[in-house]
Design brief:
- The structure is a single chain.
- This protein is α+β, with helices and mostly antiparallel strands and 103 residues long.
- The protein has a single domain, classed as Glutaredoxin, CATH 3.40.30.10.
- 35% of the residues lie in helices and 23% in strands.
- The chain contains 3 helices and 4 strands; from the N terminus they run E-H-E-H-E-E-H.
- Helix 1 links the parallel strand 1 and strand 2.
């Protein structure tokens, strides 16, 4: 079964980014349906395209689902900053259910 990819566009020194990164890193995304692999990308990295930088530089942290199954990238709603890890996992699953149900 192919995993989907969850991309966190983040920035070093951003406390909101760090909080979301820590929470996402501490939960088991492979237990989601479909399973997900997390990639954390520093928006200021030279490897990030100019289009992505322009789109997200003032918006980080941004969570994007790169879906093989849907053949597109989908920006998820902003992660509520006060969500605990267990609730974050449920929040992600709820968003996945919505996305895959409507496809």
């Amino acid at each position: 079964m192919n995993s989907e990819t969850l991309i966190l566009y983040s920035r070093k020194g951003c406390c909101l980014c760090q909080a979301v990164e820590n929470k996402l890193s501490n939960i088991c995304l492979k237990n989601l349906k479909p399973s997900i692999v997390l990639y954390i990308i520093d928006i200021d990295s030279k490897k990030v395209s100019l289009d992505i930088k322009m789109k997200y530089t003032n918006e980080v942290p941004v969570v994007v689902l790169d879906s093989n199954r849907l053949s597109k990238k989908i920006e998820l709603p902003r992660v509520p900053p006060r969500l605990k890890e267990d609730m974050l996992l449920s929040w992600i699953q709820k968003n996945l259910n919505i996305l895959y149900k409507t496809s």
